[in-house]
Amino acid sequence: MIAWIAQVLANPTTERVITALILLNAVTLGLETSPSIMAEWGPALHTLDRLLLGIFAVELLARIAVQRWAFFRDAWNVFDFAVVAIAFLPATGALSVLRALRVLRVLRLITVLPSLKRVVGALVSALPGMGSIALLLLLFLYVGAVVATKLFHGAHPDLFGDLGRSTYTLVQLMTLDGWSAEIVGPVMTTHPYSWLFFLPFVLATAFTVLNLFIGIVVSAMQTEHEKARATQHEEELRSAANDQAMMLAELRALRVEVADMRQSLARQQP
């Protein structure tokens, strides 16, 4: 029975069916946000949602039955289990917010599609490098906020009145959201040489540090792609080695049969 369940789970058709059901569940959860649709189709959508949840639960139980405790050693399996289990928690009273978390079931697409798993794996592997760059960015923001507060707090207290406001303003400046009309322009009316502060800050943050984030993510994704190609190449070599071993075994068996036939013919000759 367990062998048959494992065979069904390993079937590509099963994976495609689960993917289609996840997409269908995403559509139903989106439709439930429309009051007009819920007024007409609410009971049917709730029934469909419970049916899909039951299918996902059965699939998880089948995988647990096949893999046993090894199921929980895989982080992706634990993620699948968590997003499905959330739907079974009571959604009343203080826990009513958990009802909105049902949409997390859509994230199971990450575990179903290998391409998405590679992207998420690349992002996770890039976190240490991104943390270092985030620390560098915080240092730039802190130093810039202290300097800006001391220079411009008197004339522009709404922008640089204290350390918190200065930090918020510099974050807006870093994202280039209204940086000229709302920040640099007004400050330069009272401090004509303020561009000597703003220009290096923008170059150091918006055009340098933020692009480092992109560089690290691209590098991590390239590494994950190379790992996937290396794994595929190893599987191809292993498959070729197995085929070669089978051919050699067949050749040995054929050689033995030919030798037996020669011996048989030699005995039959007078």
Description:
The protein is mainly alpha-helical and 270 residues long. The protein has 2 domains: 2-112, Voltage-gated potassium channels. Chain C (Four Helix Bundle (Hemerythrin (Met), subunit A)), CATH 1.20.120.350; 117-237, Helix Hairpins, CATH 1.10.287.70. 81% of the residues lie in helices and 0% in strands. It is built from 10 helices and no strands. Helix 1 (2-10) packs across helix 3 and helix 2 (12-31) runs antiparallel to helix 3 (35-67). The longest helix is centred in the last third of the chain and has 74 residues, at 195-268. The model has no long low-confidence stretch (mean pLDDT 83).
Apparent shape: elongated
| Cα separation of the termini | 59 Å
Total of helices: 10
CATH architecture of the largest domain: Orthogonal Bundle
Beta strand count: 0
Task: Report Rg.
Answer: 31 Å
> CATH first level of the largest domain: which class?
Mainly Alpha
Percentage of residues in strands: under 5%
State the main characteristics.
single chain; 270 residues; mainly alpha; Four Helix Bundle (Hemerythrin (Met), subunit A); Helix Hairpins; 2 domains; 81% helix
Compact summary:
The protein has helices at residues 2-10, 12-31, 35-67, 75-85, 108-112, 114-152, 157-160, 163-174, 179-190, 195-268. With 270 residues, it is mainly α. It folds into two domains: 2-112, Voltage-gated potassium channels. Chain C (Four Helix Bundle (Hemerythrin (Met), subunit A), Up-down Bundle), CATH 1.20.120.350; 117-237, Helix Hairpins (Orthogonal Bundle).
